Amino acid sequence: MVWIVSGPSGSGKSTLVQRLLELPGMMLSVSCTTRPPRKTESDGKWYNFIEPEEFRQMVAQDEFLEYAQVFGKNWYGTPRKSLDEALAQKKDLVLEIDVQGALQVKAKLPGAKAIFVLPPSREDLERRLRARAQDSEDEIERRLERARQEILNYERYDFVIINDDLERAGREVQAIATGWRCRVDQKENRIREILKTFGG
Known about the structure:
The protein is α/β, with parallel strands linked by helices. The protein is 46% helix and 21% strand. The protein has one domain (2-197): Rossmann fold, CATH 3.40.50.
């Protein structure tokens, strides 16, 4: 299964992705970006930081499941090789990407399931963005307007988590993935094996 997690900047989606990754059989897709790393970031953990020229070459060679330019500046993309690695390891792949990228992936992989993380209000999101102390006033306003535009796409997602309580939201994201794994079609081979022990 490919799990897509999206949400406005500051909604807490990275924390909820971490909760998903606590489940066995999950693997994070490491995105590529042309932006410079922040002080707290290291190459290869959440992002591979690459030069714009290398990014353009990867686009030309169709090496991305999805890619986009964010705020008219930096490019972000999900390498297709992440999906190949997850398939080889028989793991679920987790993508933390924006709405634009999510819609691209859903078009290419209709079976992927998308989770949208919502802040409880605009005021709460603004407070979180200011608490991070990473952005200028203009950048905060841009992020809030982008959040409004992203939220308008909520109906294109399979699940929504309102992140007003991080512990509950963490349990919900794990419950979504665990519940999906318990569907009959996901367990069919195991069911047949158990049925054989009863004589067929």
